[in-house]
Amino acid sequence: MMLLHGGGGDGTTWDDLVWAFAERRTVYVPDLRGMGRSERTGPYSMTIMRDAVLLLLDRLALDRVVLVGHSLGGFAAMLAAQAAPHRVTALVLEECPPPVPLGITIPAEVDDSAPYYDREIRPSILRDLNTPDPAWWADLDTITAPTLVLAGGPASFLPQDMIAAVADRVPAGRLVTIEAGHRIHRDAPDEFVAAVKSFLVAVDGAPAPHHG
């Protein structure tokens, strides 16, 4: 299992939750490109983030993995599941921005007060979210992994109707709303863990997919 954090954060966002999943799985908690302890190696884009996740899977020799991603990390996980569906056994998208134009304001100047965050990431990533590749939406139906889509409800800044539409478009998608806003795993950790563990129990008990 690999837990992917959101933009502007690092892997420590999962520190209080890793134990809940480590009972049954080896859990990897990387820092995404340009954040935390990772090198500041721009340029940045969602496809570059996706490729970095897939390269990490290669380096760790993880042929099949459960991907759990929050926000930006969820978007990278979603794209990874599109690009390499055979490598993802299950997918959890927590408040993942839907791959439709979002109209988020791109700041003229980026706050660099956080030393663990490359200040070039935010404007680059927001441009991708505001003008997404149409293939990202079209290819949602190529995701073969059972997928849990977690929505944060009215307190989230993301369009909840489009998050629901993502769950509808993924063939094995399931939507669960936990009304905690954008950071469900931080603000409603018990509910987050319960939802993910229940989902994974169901996945573990399902017959293995047949690839003819």
TrEMBL record:
<dbReference type="InterPro" id="IPR000073">
    <property type="entry name" value="AB_hydrolase_1"/>
</dbReference>
<dbReference type="InterPro" id="IPR029058">
    <property type="entry name" value="AB_hydrolase_fold"/>
</dbReference>
<dbReference type="GO" id="GO:0016787">
    <property type="term" value="F:hydrolase activity"/>
</dbReference>
<feature type="domain" description="AB hydrolase-1">
    <location>
        <begin position="2"/>
        <end position="96"/>
    </location>
</feature>
<protein>
    <submittedName>
        <fullName>Alpha/beta fold hydrolase</fullName>
    </submittedName>
</protein>
<dbReference type="InterPro" id="IPR050228">
    <property type="entry name" value="Carboxylesterase_BioH"/>
</dbReference>
<dbReference type="Pfam" id="PF00561">
    <property type="entry name" value="Abhydrolase_1"/>
</dbReference>
<keyword id="KW-0378">Hydrolase</keyword>
